[in-house]
Every structure is written in C-alpha cells, then in structure tokens.
C-alpha cells in the first residue's frame, strides 16, 4: 500500500492556538513532491515511515528524527493513506551520506523545506492529484488549531525521550541529548561505570517467558463469556439524596451475587431499598433540627435539596436556620432559581417573603427568575413574578430577554405559549421603570415611583413625589415648569432625570443605612456637591476629606480640582494643599488599611453629614442685606432640616423668622434674625421662593 508522508515543522518555537496561518509552517518535499513509500496493508506504519524519513534526509548522519506518526483523517470518498510526522522547529536538511562519501544531490531532487502557503499555491497552479491531499491537510490543521492544547501535544517530544532525559540513571547518560558535553566533563572511570551499570540492567531485564496478546493494538472483535454478574442496587442513586436521614441506613442492603438467569433476588432487594428511601423522607425535619444533621446538610446544600423535593416544611426550617436563598451549588443554581425552574410556586413565594431579596436577582448566567421560568415553561411562576413587579426588560449574559426564550421555539408547548402571552401582556402595559442619571454621569434603571428622583437642568431642579409622572414632567419642562420657577430663557434647556438624596430624609434615618449600593449613591451626590462648593467647610474638613478621596482615587493627589472645592483652591498656594492633603492621605491610609471601597465612602459621608449644608435641596436666587446698603448677590440657596443656607451664610430655624412676599414676577423671603425686629435683616429674591417656603415649613415641623 502506498503511503504519502507530510513531514511538517513550525517556523517558530512558540505556537498559539487560535488563528491558523499557512506561512507559520514548513513541509518537507522530495523531488518537489510529498515523500511516498510502500508499507504492508496490515503492518504497523510508525517504524517504517520514520525509517524512510531518516533515509531521505541523511541516513545515519544528521538525519531528521520525527517525533511521532499521526494519521490524517480522510473523508468517506478518499482512499489515499496520508500520515503526518511532526518535526522540531530548528530541524534542517543536509545532503545524504553513503559509505562516508557525500552524494552529489541534484538541486531539483534534493529533500528540502518549503513554507506551507507556497506549497499550497503550487498545488493549486498545477491542479494535479495532490490537490485533495492539500485540502485534507489544511482541514486537519484547522481542526487542531480549534482544540486547546492540540498543537502543544503535536510538536512535543516523544514520551520515550522525555522519560530517558528526565531520570538520573547513569546507565542512560550516553542517550542524553547533551551527551557530548557530559562526555567532555567526565573521566574514563565514569564512562566505564556507566557501561557496567547498563550491562547489569540488561542482564536483569532478561525474561524467561514472553506472552504476547495478539489482540492488543488491533481492531479485531472478540467474544467474551460472563461467569457471574454483580449488581449494585444503589447504582444510579446518589448517596447524598438520602442525606436527610441517618446515612447508615442507606446501604444496609447486602449486595448479592446473582446469576444471569435469576433476577428475582435483585428485584426484591431493589423494591425493599425503594420503600426504605420513601420512608426515610418522612424523617427529614427531625434530622434538620439535629446538630449532626445541620453539619451534614451544610456541606450538601440543604435548602437546594428541600426545594428539589418540594418539601415546604424543610424549606421553612432551612430559612429559619439562616440558609441563604442566593447560595449557589456546584451547578451554579440558587434555591430561588431552582424553584422557578421546577415550577414550585408556593416554595418560591415563601422564600421571597421570608428573605425579602430583590425580585430581579440573577444567577451565574445573568438570568433572572423570569428568564428561568420562561425558559422552562412555568406559567404559574411567570404569573407570580409579574404580580410582584419583576423587570421584564432585563438582559442576561447571552443578550436575551425572558420573552425571547419562549418566543423563538419552533414547536412551543402549551406552557411556553402561556408564558409568552403573560409576558407580552406586561410589555403592552406601561412599564414602571425608567432610566435615571447619577451625579457622576452614570445611569441606573429605577422604579418611577422612587421618591429620590429629581428633574434637573442648568436653571433649576425639582424633586418628584411618588405620585408624579417623571416622563410627562420631563416633556412639559420647557413649556410650563421652567417658566414658572425661573425668569431665564428656556431655549437651550435639556432637562434630565437624576437620583438625588430625599431632602425630607432625616440624618437619624440616613445613619441607619448600611447597604453598599445606597452608600455609593449617596457618596456620588455628596462628592459632586462637595467639589462644586455646595457644602460649607473649613480647611481642616477639606484636608480630611481630601485624604479619603486620595484613598478612593489611588494617589491622584496632584489633581486638586477633584479633591478641593472650587472656592478654596485659590485661597492658598497649590503647594499648601498638596503638602497637607498628602500628609492626611498617609495618615488615613495607615489608620484604615482596607480595600473595602464602601467603607471609605462611608467615612467620607460621615464627614459630609457633619456639615451644616448636607442634605440640602438647592435653588438659585439673589440676596442682599437690609441693615446696610448693598447690591443683590447671586447665590445658591440650600434648604435642609437645619435651616436655610444662602451659600456663604446660614440661617437656623430656631434663630430666624421669615415671611413670603409676592411681587410682580418674583417672590421674596424676608428673614429676621431677631423676633423683636420689625424690619427684615436679609431679603432673598427668587422665583422658587414658594417652593422654598413650603419646604422650610415641612422640615421645621419634622424637626420640632
């Protein structure tokens, strides 16, 4: 049988999986063709092909030694045998030597390497019989590149060489690839010792009898006779399924050796085991309560098992023992998603009610409960989730919404169709979620009934109540709202929805907040107000908070505008700020060496909360003093539970009185610091005075 040989080597030492390029490989040609030889039809080709490669590339002198011989798979209609011999990247061809004399090789007939892309181009131009082999070789290499680690194995050293080179037996020193170097550094006594050791090993390795298995390595079929059969009645039953009972009772049944023609004993034992397993589930609750049971179940995801068994009482007990409904097992399943997948509505409703987790929690694949229920066709779960306000717009890691999993099926079942109708009906209803900006420019998806949503523009901002309709107010901003509260031009107004702190939220209630997401939102707003000089603070406060910011921003201390309020940058020389802020940064880092970002944000928030203007709703207006002749000064007006702050000056509720005076186009707040005074000490003029007056009255009532 004629065999075609492809001796291939990489052009570089390092090969990477992925993109396949023809010019990264070279193949060996003889007479400008692939080498060919004949072997026996049922013979082992490895030794013969390696011997032929050695003969055409130098014989006993500097021959090419292949790493291994691999068969290149063929399609059904191809009959030609094609074998690949991988070579080392630094192998080269030298003229053949015969009887000590160098043969005169004809250049056109010499064995030589050529890049794979040039050979493929020649094959295409000639259009001869080698063309199918070229396509076959290219397809095989493409397949190897798609398999991780295949190339590394293809061009690795033979196992026999790796074994010999990795041992320290002196008998194999002569076979070591660095033997010439070893020989120069060794003495005659060392070489003689190596030869004696090798002879001794060869003598001890002699065998008296050698028995060869004629079937080994062949594809011949053979028949076998079974003398006896042993069946395990527990096969197919995981031992962990019986974890809710004493584990010793799971394997009380003795394994019987049964004959091929008698299965009655096995069936009896199997029925006995199944009955025992059913009875064991009734003791699940008592086992959960025991200390041994808790430890055993802790290692085997007890809440997952109770959900899978639809054991409502077991789930209730696990929740009482504070097992998390968001814990993932080895299959990346949470108890919540497992209940949604299996369609256990009562269990899912119980876990949601007790744990009070977010209805939109996702699993390892970014899939919400709605995704899982829709994917598995559980309309009762879909209905429950829609009633609880699940977000139907969520997208998983595969960039799919829940409705897509039940809408693209070729032959949908009745349950999938019901899921699709339920979700589609919700899509036709107005959604309760909107995109809201944070003060750092990022965007979050929040409920439209959120009381922390503000309408914000360059001219004004307005806090919305839970009954307001954000989108409608956003559309009517230019036509009605902006003209009602400001006297500026509204041609270039581009209002947006922003998340801001609820001005009616007291500091006492805010201090109870420990959620990392809420702290992050509050920090973003506080940091924005701080850098825009909306928080009144002295130099000591600025240096302390700058040290915290340095820790958050990892050393950007030379950028003063991200740490120092605008109105204080020019008060001191920049070197003053850098020196003091850097010192505070070092002190703070030594004091609190932690990578918990929420902890550092909380420190910054605590400092901001001590400032008088923290938590303000900000307005724009003008102020002037009635006690002396002065002009109107443009200021930011802040209102919080402390009082009214015309930035650069604050008025506390308990020390002031005010009245609202309506003029032609604007409203004024007349402020008296002394109740016995008949004339106002300060006058604040703004079109937003009515809002300020209402807000101040509410906040004073809250704090009285």
TrEMBL record:
The keyword Disulfide bond does not apply. Residues 509-619 form the FERM central domain. Keywords: ANK repeat. The keyword Isomerase does not apply. Residues 634-695 form the KRIT1/FRMD8 FERM domain. InterPro entries: Ankyrin_rpt (IPR002110), Ankyrin_rpt-contain_sf (IPR036770), FERM/acyl-CoA-bd_prot_sf (IPR014352), FERM_2 (IPR035963), FERM_central (IPR019748), KRIT1/FRMD8 (IPR051594), KRIT1_FRMD8_FERM_C (IPR057096), NUDIX (IPR032022). Signal peptide: none annotated. One of its GO terms (biological process) is negative regulation of angiogenesis. Residues 34-174 form the KRIT N-terminal NPxY motif-rich region domain. GO terms for cellular component: plasma membrane. It holds the Pfam family Ank_2. Transmembrane segments: none annotated. ANK repeats lie at residues 365-397. This is Uncharacterized protein. It comes from Helobdella robusta (Californian leech). The lineage of its organism: Eukaryota, Metazoa, Spiralia, Lophotrochozoa, Annelida. The gene is 20207826.
């Amino acid at each position: 049988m004629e065999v075609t040989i492809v001796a291939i080597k990489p052009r570089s030492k390092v090969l990477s999986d992925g993109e396949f390029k023809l010019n990264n490989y070279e193949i060996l040609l003889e007479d400008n063709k692939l080498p060919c030889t004949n072997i026996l039809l049922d013979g082992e080709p490895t030794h013969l092909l390696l011997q032929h490669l050695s003969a055409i590339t130098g014989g006993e002198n500097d021959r090419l030694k292949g790493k291994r011989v691999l068969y290149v798979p063929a399609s059904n209609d191809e009959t030609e045998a094609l074998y690949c011999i991988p070579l080392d990247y630094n192998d080269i061809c030298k003229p053949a030597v015969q009887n000590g004399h160098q043969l005169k090789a004809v250049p056109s007939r010499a064995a030589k390497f050529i890049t794979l892309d040039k050979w493929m181009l020649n094959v295409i131009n000639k259009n001869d019989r080698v063309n199918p082999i070229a396509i076959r070789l290219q397809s095989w290499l493409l397949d190897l590149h798609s398999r991780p680690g295949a190339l590394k194995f293809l061009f690795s050293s033979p196992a026999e060489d790796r074994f010999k080179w990795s041992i320290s037996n002196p008998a194999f020193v002569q076979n070591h690839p660095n033997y010439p170097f070893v020989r120069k550094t060794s003495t005659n006594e060392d070489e003689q010792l190596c030869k004696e050791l090798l002879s001794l090993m060869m003598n001890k390795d002699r065998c008296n009898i050698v028995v060869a298995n004629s079937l080994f390595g062949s594809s011949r079929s053979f028949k076998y006779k079974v003398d006896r059969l042993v069946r395990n009645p527990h096969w197919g039953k995981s031992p962990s399924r019986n974890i809710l009972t004493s584990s010793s009772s799971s394997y009380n049944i003795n394994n019987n050796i049964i004959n091929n023609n008698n299965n009655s004993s096995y069936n009896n034992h199997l029925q006995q085991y199944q009955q025992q397993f059913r009875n064991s589930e009734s003791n699940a609750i008592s086992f959960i309560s025991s200390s041994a049971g808790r430890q055993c179940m802790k290692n085997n995801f007890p809440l997952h098992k109770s959900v899978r068994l639809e054991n409502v009482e077991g789930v209730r007990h696990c929740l009482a023992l504070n097992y998390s409904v968001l814990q993932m097992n080895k299959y990346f399943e949470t108890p919540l998603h497992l209940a949604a997948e299996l369609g256990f509505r009562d269990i899912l409703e119980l876990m949601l009610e007790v744990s009070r987790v977010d209805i939109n929690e996702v699993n390892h694949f970014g899939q919400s409960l709605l995704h899982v229920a829709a994917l598995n066709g559980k309309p009762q779960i879909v209905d429950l989730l829609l009633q609880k306000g699940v977000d139907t717009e969520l997208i998983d890691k595969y960039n799919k919404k829940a409705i897509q999993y039940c809408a693209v099926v070729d032959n949908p079942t009745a349950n999938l169709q019901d899921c699709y109708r339920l979700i589609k009906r919700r899509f036709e209803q107005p959604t309760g979620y909107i995109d809201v900006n944070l003060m750092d420019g990022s965007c979050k998806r929040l409920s439209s009934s959120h009381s922390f949503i503000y309408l914000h523009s360059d001219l004004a901002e307005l806090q919305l109540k839970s009954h307001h309709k954000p989108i409608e107010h956003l559309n009517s901003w230019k036509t009605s709202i902006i003209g009602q509260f400001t006297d500026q031009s509204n041609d270039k107004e581009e209002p947006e929805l922003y998340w801001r702190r609820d001005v009616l939220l007291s500091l006492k209630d805010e201090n109870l907040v420990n959620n990392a997401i809420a702290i992050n939102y509050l920090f973003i707003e506080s940091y924005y107000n701080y850098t825009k000089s909306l928080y009144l603070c002295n130099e000591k406060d600025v240096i302390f908070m700058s040290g915290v910011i340095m820790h958050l921003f990892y050393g950007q201390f030379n950028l003063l505008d991200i740490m120092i309020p605008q109105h204080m940058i020019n008060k001191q020389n920049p070197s003053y700020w850098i020196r003091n802020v850097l010192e505070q940064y070092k002190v703070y880092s030594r004091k609190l060496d932690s990578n918990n970002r929420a902890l550092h944000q909380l420190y910054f928030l605590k400092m901001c909360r001590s400032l008088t203007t923290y938590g303000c709703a900000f307005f724009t207006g003008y102020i002037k003093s009635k006690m002396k002749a002065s002009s109107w000064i443009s200021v930011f007006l802040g209102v919080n539970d402390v009082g009214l702050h015309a930035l650069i000056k604050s008025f506390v509720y308990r020390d002031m009185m005010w009245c609202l005076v309506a003029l032609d186009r604007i409203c004024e707040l007349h402020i008296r610091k002394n109740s016995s005074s008949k004339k106002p000490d300060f006058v604040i003029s703004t079109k937003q005075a009515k809002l300020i007056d209402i807000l101040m009255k509410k906040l004073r009532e809250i704090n009285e």
